[in-house]
What we know:
The protein folds into 2 domains: 7-79, Nucleotidyltransferase, domain 5 (2-Layer Sandwich), CATH 3.30.420; 82-170, no CATH class. It is 38% helix and 15% strand. It has 5 helices and 5 strands; from the N terminus they run E-E-E-H-E-H-E-H-H-H. It has a 5-stranded mixed β-sheet, with helices on both faces. Strand 4 (58-61), helix 2 and strand 5 form a beta-alpha-beta unit. It starts with 6 loop residues before the first strand and ends in a 21-residue tail after the last helix.
Amino acid sequence: MTWVSSVLAVVDEVDGVAVVWWVELGRDNPGMSRLCGAWTFEGDEVQEAVPDLVTRHLVVATGSGQALLESVGVSVERSVDAQRTLECVIETRDELQREYENAANTRKNGRALVPPAWPQLPASEDLDSTFADAGAGPGARALGIARWFKQLCATWDVIEQQRLARSYLRQHGGDTARDLPISLVEVTVRA
């Protein structure tokens, strides 16, 4: 099966309720809201609906969401590593900051460069515990994770705006805005 979507399916299961939130991570759908779909299912609907909502999409699942996917026979092709994705954004921002500092220190015409205004990054989160508000309903944790990814995308968009506004930074990634650098979970194949 081929991956064809920039939509991230956030999968969770709380008290027998399956929850799927979609987050648009790409730039190919202008005008589409980052939070672009949400569903809850119980009972017999779960077996039919959940596979349709995650197949051919990027997926991030809580521990109970992963157990749900396994129970309905879904093999995830593209599982997103949220922490590593955040680290990739941080690494890129830090690399661009070093390039700015190098350009500022080696500037020969005496005019100061305007420093990039980097946005604050979302905090590193534990997907299974950070977003689990007691009494907030079965969709609360998945919504919290979806909002975290939405914030990460917004932060990345600002980083790209800062990069594109400076000719000496555009050589590090090109003349057009790049998509969020997504890190996938490495799959270990047992022999």
